[in-house]
Amino acid sequence: MVAAGDADKGGVADKLGIAPGQAVQEIGWDEDVDDDVRAAIEERIGSDLLDEDADDVVDVVLLWWRDGDGDLVDDLINATGPLAENGVVWVLTPKTGRPGHVEPSEIAEAVPTAGLSQTSNITVAEDWSGTRLVRPSSAKVKR
């Protein structure tokens, strides 16, 4: 049996810019996360997602974030600790009208305080949107 979302699984990893073999850390997991998104990423990287307590250097951080989850600036700063120099943070938030929806302005205000730059917004899944964040130097300097 092929689920409706199976054909698009690789598309999610592509949208997020995730390549085979990358180290991807997941922060903010809860019962409401999109398991198809997680499965597509794990299939692409060929391993499990690293949890919040992992000490590895990571290429991508997936930060599942909902209204009421705490201080976004603090969590963004914590998310950049293990991030590789050219790494990416994806803030995944519930879409408008979904429980836990976060106003885009809240993310936009937190990003510079955390020392990051916002580069794009995408639809990640039926209920989730993604905001791509990078360190300003990685957006400007190619090594």
Distance between the termini: 46 Å
Percent range for β-strand residues: 25-35%
Radius of gyration: 14 Å
Instruction: Give a short account of the largest sheet.
Output: 5 strands, mixed
Structural class: alpha/beta
Could you tell me the mean pLDDT? 89
Tally of alpha and pi helices = 5
Order of helices and strands: HEHEHEHEEH
Indicate the percent of residues in helices. Answer: 25-40%
The low-pLDDT segments are 1-9, 138-143
Tell me the strand order in the biggest sheet: 1-2-3-5-4
Q: State the shape.
A: globular
Tally the beta strands. 5
Protein name: DUF3052 domain-containing protein
Organism: Umezawaea endophytica
Tell me what you see in this structure.
With 143 residues, the chain is α/β, with parallel strands linked by helices. It has helices spanning 9-15, 35-45, 72-80, 104-113, 136-140; strands at residues 24-27, 58-64, 83-94, 117-123, 128-134. The chain has a five-stranded mixed β-sheet. Strand 1 (24-27), helix 2 (35-45) and strand 2 (58-64) form a beta-alpha-beta unit. Helix 1 crosses helix 2. The chain is globular. The N and C termini lie far apart (46 Å). The relative contact order is 0.18. The model is unreliable at 1-9 and 138-143 (pLDDT under 50). It comes from Umezawaea endophytica.
